[in-house]
Amino acid sequence: VLGAQAVCQDAVVTQQLLQEGFHRELLLQVELGVTREDLGRCTVAARTRLPSGIYVDPYELASLQRHNLTKALVIPDAVDVEAPEYLAPELVVFLYMTPDPRCSGCFTATLPVHGRYHRPAENNGTALVTLKGPEILICCCDNHLSTECWKPSDVEAACLERSNYPCQWYSVKHKLVNEELIMQIPVGLRQHRFMVCVTTLLATVLCSSMILAAACKYGHSS
């Protein structure tokens, strides 16, 4: 029997954003406060909401899943990776976590995330995107759970140990080491708009002229 009361009281969640710039990694770590033997064949997952300024590349995620480097579900599953922040929806990611060999009762997961392009700013060349803490979920098909401090979840994802067997997910009460993360994304400045437009136009005219000249010069010989 798994003591849910201990899990709910002692669970601690840490989230970090690794690397810099547009392309980052979200690292999630969960300490449930019980031994791995007590957990049995339970599956631990995190459900996190990505704001419109951050997205997950479904092709990159599919590649990672083929190599068993991660397991995740993205809702909606169709992600427009080219959409700017002001035209993009929020995403919900259901991320399965793996046991951390350095800590009994600990689980970890990483998710590659990318910043979207934002509107130009007035004075500051940085946009701030706030990432809230995740919801921690657990599914134990083979254990008799005490659910005194757990709430049944509406998640319909498969419990990995019994992928074809219906199993109830529960939301685990936990403490967040950091309530939210701030991702800084470089953006352009509005006062540079005229210079950028003129430079782009001149570069386009110059390159087009060079292509046209080359076509006229070598077109007959081919």
TrEMBL record:
InterPro entries: PIG-X/PBN1 (IPR013233), PIGX (IPR040039). Pathway: Glycolipid biosynthesis; glycosylphosphatidylinositol-anchor biosynthesis. Keywords: Endoplasmic reticulum, Glycoprotein, GPI-anchor biosynthesis, Membrane, Transmembrane, Transmembrane helix. It is a single-pass membrane protein. This is Phosphatidylinositol-glycan biosynthesis class X protein. The chain crosses the membrane at residues 194-215. Stabilizing subunit of the glycosylphosphatidylinositol-mannosyltransferase I complex which catalyzes the transfer of the first mannose, via an alpha-1,4 bond from a dolichol-phosphate-mannose (Dol-P-Man) to the glucosaminyl acyl phosphatidylinositol (GlcN-(acyl)PI) intermediate to generate alpha-D-Man-(1->4)-alpha-D-GlcN-(1->6)-(1-radyl,2-acyl-sn-glycero-3-phospho)-2-acyl-inositol and participates in the sixth step of the glycosylphosphatidylinositol-anchor biosynthesis. Probably acts by stabilizing the mannosyltransferase PIGM. One of its GO terms (cellular component) is endoplasmic reticulum membrane. SMART domains: PIG-X. It is found in: Endoplasmic reticulum membrane. It comes from the Eukaryota. Coiled coil: none annotated. It holds the Pfam family PIG-X. GO terms for biological process: GPI anchor biosynthetic process. Belongs to the PIGX family. The gene is Pigx.
